[in-house]
Write a structure and sequence with these properties.
With 207 residues, the protein is of the alpha/beta class. The chain is 41% helix and 20% strand. The structure holds guanosine-5'-monophosphate.
């Protein structure tokens, strides 16, 4: 390919954060603000929550189906979280990245670690709540999980906090529009990286 015509690949973006931090809301806001970004719909063995749609929020599958995907090596990463499998299908995200479209993954810390290893150029962002008390309040407020599940999700949040240092950025979700705005700024900065703009000074554009 001619210098200066090199096509930029899409950026892989990993978003993590404790259950109940409001990731889905922040992601919805982000997708409405930025074009050419694809949200990767994960596979999971957990039951759909009220209002969740198959193929939109998750691809809901049974354990044997998920285990078959693991055996066939179809997942970029997967993890078990509070007794259920969650995983990212490789095929779709590869296609999007090749087409120059950014791909957003909403995954927990173990999966994020796998992505970091396999895709060193990925940008890792961790979303935190303003406080732990606020997180507990939000989890209770959504009335979707039992007291036992909430307790396990809060314990998981404490565990996850030990890994935040492995992320590139921390965003606080106090106000959704502010959190989405911060993520947008991160992505804009990534776009401006020399490695992503080198084509602007090569070939016909060279001085
Ligand atoms: P929830 O059950 O609340 O939708 O998700 C539980 C956790 O699983 C969240 O931390 C979410 O980010 C994570 N998760 C969702 N999809 C995936 C995935 O494909 N891979 C991994 N590793 N984690 C995921």
């Amino acid at each position: 390919m001619m210098p200066g015509r090199r096509k930029r690949k899409g950026q892989l973006i990993v978003l993590s954060g404790p259950s109940g931090v409001g990731k889905s809301t922040v992601i919805a806001e982000l997708l409405s603000l930025r074009e050419k970004i694809h949200f990767s719909v994960s596979y999971t063995t957990r039951e759909p929550r009220v209002g969740e749609e198959n193929g939109v929020n998750y691809n809901f599958v049974d354990r044997p189906t998920f285990e078959e995907m693991i055996r066939r090596d179809e997942l970029l990463e997967y993890a078990e979280y509070v007794n259920h499998y969650y995983g990212t299908s490789l095929k779709v995200i590869q296609e999007k990245l090749e087409a120059g479209i950014d791909v957003l993954l909403d995954i927990e810390v173990k999966g994020a670690g796998t992505v970091r290893r396999k895709c060193p150029d990925a940008v890792l962002i961790y979303i935190i709540p303003p406080s732990f008390e606020e997180l507990s309040r939000r989890l209770h407020g959504r009335h979707t999980d039992s007291e036992e599940v909430i307790a396990r999700r809060l314990a998981k949040a404490r565990e996850e906090y030990a890994h935040i240092g492995e992320y590139d950025y921390i965003v606080v979700n106090d106000k959704v529009s502010v959190a989405a705005g911060e993520i947008l700024s991160i992505l804009t900065a990534e776009d401006c990286r020399t490695k992503n703009r080198i084509n602007l000074i090569e070939g016909d554009n060279a001085l």
